Amino acid sequence: MTTVIGLAPWHQRGLHLSQSFRLCRRTLFTVLALESSADDTCAAVVTSSRQILSNIVVKQHDLHEGFGGIHPTVAIEAHQRNMPGAVRRALENAKLTMQDVDGIAFTRGPGIGGCLSVGSNAAKSLAAALNKPMVGVHHMQAHALTPLLTAPVDQIPEFPFLTLLISGGHTLLLLATSKTSFEILATTADESVGRSFDKVARMLALSWGTKGPGAALEDFCRKDIGDVPDVGSFPVPMPGKLAFSYSCLHSSIERYLASTQVPLTEGHRVALARAFQDAAAQQLCEKLTLGLEKLSLRNINPRHVVVSGGVASNLFLRTRLRAALDSYSPDAKIDLVFPPPELCTDNAVMIGWAAMHRFLAGDHDDYSIDLRAKWDISTIPDVNSRIPA
Q: How far is residue 204's CA from residue 181's CA, in Å, rounded to a whole number?
């Protein structure tokens, strides 16, 4: 069984899709977008006027929980089952047909190769059969640009801004100077913050529920259980160095559990979960502050920090990051920008929006374009470099 999350059209969410919009739709560019880089099968319809007409996400948590993580073959087979229905529902929710779609976008990479191929093949087949332009999108670029779609017009992040991309596959601190230009300031030396959340959730024998292991751990930390034992704290690795490391953090939990001679009580497990989450947040805060300090030495002082990726939906982390920025810059507020929680985790809305500037510039990909399971975000070419003079 899979879990399906659907975002109703705007006019069903209190955001009325006006008659004038329907009459002027032909002046807009409408994108059908597909995403299948990991274990979520996603399809969405977005327009160049920043309208999200539909957002379908089909989860696979129940299929992978028994494996303790994403099983590639299981994920690929689920994508193959789910993608046709996701596309159909995205169009139905948007009240459109394929003839109303102007372009098709898909996640080109990075991600699990076989999973990427499902969305890629669907996008290529639809685009080729219907003679539609097509754009392949960098997954992490899409996360970084999501607030440019979702933020109120007067709060849209301005370049250059810092972006902290935190997910099950990545932990990146980037300086974004345009929609296609990203300088990597810090990355993980080993595993991502999201992966460490997943591993610790498994060590503590937490049920994934419908939201996944990372969200399950966050919920477990909020459990009202009264007094809990003192398990100490876990240090931030590589102090003063602009780099992340999360394998050492989950290994600290592993060693603690191995040294425990008696079965853990519920309170003991909650204490460990809280200590882990606190240390994970502390590392992100310290590295973010260090990144701002180093940029300041280059006379670069971003006024916005964008945080996206699945881990960005963690409310404890959001509070800690806000406090860290206020401490770093108490007099000149640095805006902390998050997408809505449903658009922090993988979705096709962000893919469609990240492709929009290329569609509008007339910059499209060939139907034979290859996937890029590994893809350095700093190597994304500028739109102007792709369009013949």
A: 40
CA distance from start to end of the chain: 51
Strands 161-166 and 41-47: unpaired
- What Å distances lie between residue 212 and 115, 202, 247, 275, CA to CA? 18, 11, 20, 20
User: Residue 278 carries which side chain, given as an amino acid letter?
Assistant: D
Angle between helices 247-259 and 193-203 (to 10 degrees): 10
Strand partners, 345: none
**Residue pointed to by tokens 């754009």:** 135
Q: Looking at the predicted structure, is the pLDDT value of residue 72 above 90?
A: no
- Distances in whole angstroms, Cα of residue 98 to Cα of each of 90, 101, 141, 161, 315: 11, 5, 26, 36, 38
Model confidence at 274: pLDDT above 80: yes
Task: Report yes or no: 216 and 276 within 8 Å, Cβ to Cβ.
Answer: no
Between residues 56 and 23, the one the model is more confident about:
56
Q: In the β-sheet with 171-176, what is the strand arrangement from edge to edge?
A: 182-187, 171-176, 161-166, 304-308, 335-337
Name the nearest CA neighbour of 137 among 96, 112, 169, 109. Answer: 109
Please tell me the predicted confidence (pLDDT) of residue 61.
Answer: 63
Residue 351 pLDDT > 90: yes
Rg for the chain, CA atoms, rounded: 21
- Give 3-state DSSP helix, strand, coil % of the chain, rounded to 5: 45, 15, 35
> Is 169 within 8 Å of 140 (Cβ atoms)?
no
Concatenate the DSSP letters of all residues of 271-335 into one string: HHHHHHHHHHHHHHHHHHHHHHHHHHHTT---SEEEEESGGGG-HHHHHHHHHHHHHH-SSSPPE
Cβ contacts of 288 within 8 Å, gap of 6 or more: 162, 164, 173, 305, 321, 324, 325
**Confidence band of 67 (pLDDT split at 50, 70, 90):** low
Reported as a pLDDT band with limits 50, 70 and 90, residue 384 is low
From CA 192, how far away is CA 171, in angstroms rounded?
Answer: 5
Quote the pTM value.
0.88
Q: What is the pLDDT of residue 1?
A: 38
